[in-house]
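Feature request disguised as a bug: please show the residue count (176) next to AD domain-containing protein in the output. Example input:
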Amino acid sequence: MEGEPELHPIFQTDPEEWMQYVYKQVSVVTEDEEEHVGWVYTIDPVSQTFVLVQFLDDNRQVLILPGTSVTKVTVLAESADSDGIKEKLDALFRPQTEALFSEEELRGRKQKLKMWLEKNRLPVQVTGSKGEVLTISDALMIQPPYDVNDCHSTNEIILGRIQGLIKNMPEDHDQW
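Example output, currently without the count:
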């Protein structure tokens, strides 16, 4: 019917159609007829923007190709588990705390922070399936690696105060 608004492409494309490209090597041709080859990390379903990663020797290059410029997509290779492509892609965009700190270092950081919070008269408990989370009542939790940005709370006031305490924690407070 005339006068009906045109539906946005997000309502016309099945999400499975986009998911078929994730973690696969593709060739994307843009409207300027340039070909971009890389591994798809994700596709934004609203803007249809592709995030491609190219692994070049020891370097990586991230390409963001707006959906409005994409004219053709061809799958070149599937990600085999033995290639470790999925892990490489995920590692680029998600911090790997295990890689940054050893178990011993994480244990030390947790203990040091727990002692600091207790010195400031906060009721700290060790929780989590492996005893890796510090909690203060039900109001706040601190996950590894126990830094300012690892605090989670729905109460902004409590969150701000605990983050302030962590920022002001002396390096040698556990030596007192």
